[in-house]
Amino acid sequence: MPKGSEERTSARREEIVDACAALYETMGFRDITIRDIGAKTSFTRTSIYNYFQTKEEIFLALLQREHELWSADLEALARRDEPLSAEQFADALARTLERRGCMLKLMSMNLYDMEGNSRLENLVAFKRAYAGALQAAACCLERFFPGMTAGDRQTFLYAFFPFLFGVYPYSFHTDKQLQAMALAHVDNAHYSIRELTSSFVSSLLRAFPQDRSAGSQEGARGWPDSE
Fold first, then answer.
1. For 33-62, what is each residue's pLDDT tens digit?
2. Distance CA 138, CA 157 (A)
3. pLDDT tens-place string over residues 159-175
4. Does the model's pTM come out above 0.85?
5. C-alpha to C-alpha distance for 217 and 199, rounded to whole angstroms
6. Rounded distance between C-alpha atoms, residue 104 and residue 161, angstroms
7. What would you report as the CA-atom Rg of the chain, rounded to the nearest whole angstrom?
8. Which of 11, 58, 125, 164 is deepest in the core (most CB within 10 A)?
9. In this structure, are residues 170 and 187 in contact, taking their beta carbons and an 8 Å threshold?
10. Which domains are seen in the chain, by residue range?
């Protein structure tokens, strides 16, 4: 760890992560090098090794930050005063992911490389951020669907979070992928991250009773159809 104030160290790390994020908007994970990242910072490339030992650690820090930002949006959603129907909640939850394209892309394409080539302490920091997002999502469910039990919430989360690993590839295609699908006569129905997520969450919520206090008959019917 480099010498200096905690604030300076944090600022340097953020600058490195910012540079990585900017490159990732136009370049592929495998094409980006530490030299490329260093060229976009205000200090020498070799100084990066004072903060991160591998390119994958930088990307993992970016993914950690993305999860922390998403958790903040989920926490803001949970603080909303007005009640939400299943469809309204599904759309609100989907909207929190519209700005997390970088997070979804990294999760679906590069997670194993990042985790496999990062030091344990960095991986632990990321896992804590991931756990924070799980907890924030659980709080949203508890806030808007009090009829769900702890088991219901766990069932929802264990379906929803794995779903997130596949959203990005279904929402974004390269020109080469589009050409291949056309030649293979594969239907290319385009859906956005928001559309895919909202539809999935709405369907998933219908598996759970709206209000267990209303009795076993209501629980057997599940979510009523929307008008």
1. 999 999 999 988 889 999 999 999 999 999
2. 7
3. 999 999 999 999 999 89
4. yes
5. 26
6. 11
7. 21
8. 58
9. no
10. 1-52 (1.10.10), 57-221 (1.10.357.10)
